[in-house]
Input
Amino acid sequence: MITDNIKNLENYNIVSEKVVSFLMNLPTETGHYEIDDTAYANIDIYNTKPLENCKFEAHKKYIDIQMLIQGEEELDYVPVNELKISEPYDEKRDVMFFENSEKTPDTLQLKPFKFAMIYPHEAHRPQMGKGQQVKKVVVKIAV
Output
């Protein structure tokens, strides 16, 4: 997991110039955006949820860059190999889900324009909070 401010994103060579440009010049509308042949983004508005209503998830085909545009949310993360699978990998959706662990995960407080770059070997539990409305962009970069 890498966390940093969006103004430092171009320092990470896994991120193309087109992805950097997209995130530095975000559209205002929610929706799905094709960035280039290897990356796309979704911008959504939703309410954060209590921890017990959130699940750990992981992906195999994409690196996530998750960044809030408005609001605050917590995101837990833990290595995939430390969790038990609750829903097997779905290749079409590129996602698998895990049981919530007894182990205490690391937690990140997401705030506007602070991003989290999440790799396939890292499970993450996003959308945690106290029912606050957030606006978030998630960029998917093929690995």
Observations:
- The longest strand covers residues 133-142.
- The radius of gyration is 14 Å.
